[in-house]
Amino acid sequence: MATMADVARSAGVSVATVSHVLNDTRPVLPHTRQAVLDAIDRLGYTPNTLARSLVTARTQSIGLAVSAISNPYFTEILQGVEAAALEHGYSLLIADPHDDPEHEHKVVQLLHERRVDGMIVAPSANPRELVAYLARHQVPAVLLDRLLDGPADGPHFDQVCAENAEPTARLVRHLAELGHRRIGLVAGLPGYSTTRERISGHRHGLAGAGLPYYEHLVAHGDSESAGAEHATATLLSLPAPPTALVTANNAMTIGALRALRERGLSVPGDIALCCFDDFAWADLFSPRLTAVAQPSREIGARAVRVLLDRLAEPDRPARTVRLPCTFVHRTSCGCPEPSAQLEKGTVS
User: Fold this and answer.
1) What are the CB-based long-range contacts (under 8 Å, 24+) for 187-191?
2) What is the pLDDT of residues 330-345, one digit of tens each?
């Protein structure tokens, strides 16, 4: 196995120069840098990552804490994070916090002890301990999808997410345009910023259509399938149940569909359905699901770029990046099957 000394001899430079090229610790003349790179390629030299981390105080690794196993949306985000990290020469350490504040604190501490250069975290509904830990240890971090409101939640962090309110309002307005006057919402877990913003979007969509907002037409499905099944059953049991539903994430769409099937209700014949979160099999349902699609992979990739900017400039002001969603028009809303390509429109 080739060593750094072998590379130095082959390139006709000192070991120190090879180190500066590998670690970018001092400017090297272009022709000298190229000679070192050519020697590395010729000899098949593989840098010692551990030794490099001792020189640069960097491990070239990023910690990612998201509940990717239980949520397909986060699985796609993970793919975006991984691709962007590899593109910039970073490895990825992944931990699943299970959306539990206590476990979240443990896995973030574990990632920190592995000396990752920074972290990307999708916070739980109660991120107080997480925020305190990141602030206390000055860990460069980007919060993903679920955001902090402001100073009351603690120090400012870089944050990356999709738009939530206006895309939800778009779904509600579309259902109202189809004649629905009682539009229910199966909302997520209280405490998530996504839940608050999608409820706000539901309210604004109704107002934009000239319809009143009724609190009893909003039921919390707690962001998972079983909770959404119960929430949908609650809405259907009302004296005047909704004639249309908006589900606020992909897992809750499955729960809502299960509740409708158990009651023998058809979509859209008996009740119209639109969902926030498109997913791979949404086009395979009968009817095909009208949905808001989040740019999941781009969210993950953008979070990496924001984190790398933070590592390069630790004192830069914190920023929140919001990415637009896409309205995917299918047939579960009650519209006829499009004769041409599906209608798609960006919603931001």
Assistant:
1) 187/218, 187/219, 187/220, 187/221, 187/231, 187/248, 188/220, 188/221, 188/222, 188/223, 188/248, 188/249, 188/252, 189/99, 189/125, 189/220, 189/222, 189/223, 189/227, 190/125, 190/220, 191/124, 191/125, 191/126
2) 999 999 876 544 455 6
